[in-house]
Amino acid sequence: MVALLVCGVALAAQAASGTRPTTPGLPFCRIGEAVDSGLAFLARSQLPDGSVGTVQPHLQTGLTILAFLSSGRTPDGDAGSPIPPACRWLLEFSGEDGFLGDAEFPMESHAVCALALGELRGMLREPKLPDRASRALNYALAAQDKAVGADFYGGWKADPKDKLCDRRVTAWHLLVLHGAALRGAKIPASALSRALMFMEGSQRVPATGRTIEKTDLGGFSYDATGLPIVSITGAGLAVMSLYGRDVERRDLALAWLRNNRPLWYGPNFYTTHFFTGRALAWEARRTAEARSQHAAYARAIWDMLRDHQNPDGSFQIPPGNAENTKRMGATYATAMAVLVLNVHRQLLPLDAAE
What we know:
single chain, about 350 residues
């Protein structure tokens, strides 16, 4: 009954605003039921101190906050919301310098937690929240690579000790900067240009003196020299869409993704579709072809996740994923699955693409 009500409210809101769902044919009420079941699992999994998960707990706690917010579950509307204790845990275990990440994969987890705190500003009356969110943003800006070299530099590293920047981590940080800018933060133009140049530096596009295989055209590679992969192409298209970058390059990325359909397989299934789903939803606003592509993609992802949700509401991790993902387990998979399934709701400010 709750899921049906949520579905009805969501569709009514879209009608009132003059917009329409970008994924015609999807069973939104059944998605709502799957999401509600996943959120109930996450709430039951929250530890007494407010954190979620024992492996990379900062990352998982930040993702859980985002999962609830993406479902419209704001803390002021639910007395038993897991969001306030999760936020208090992040605030308690944040560094004075603004660092919010885990020891493992520190910069990705920092970006996710910074994003979560940024989304909570104005929602919670936590005295430390505004200051900690600002410190987290400043830490992110300070950690950005200051070199200019689109192939390897200009973004964020997975770990400060690494030599080269990481495109997946950079995509997360570009979401952080976008969300902060929406709230009035002054983001240096040079920070954005370096990061976007780095992201776009690995896309296979026509260039003088460069032979590109037809099957590679439009795709993004991890390290600017390897073969294009779905996870980085989805992240690349997402940030290009978010920041209104070159339309021709976005069309090439769309074509590459159209020829590389989603599979129930790793190594980064959930982050791949967190970004790819948002990229296609944003691009669906542009053309009928993009809307059709998004509808087919969203249906395929829903079918996969529906078939891999457990009776307790948790979601499974597909084969081929990295060892740290397997160790994070069901809480990670469930928070990410909710974020993937909730793309059509567009309730997070981070989804406010240009």
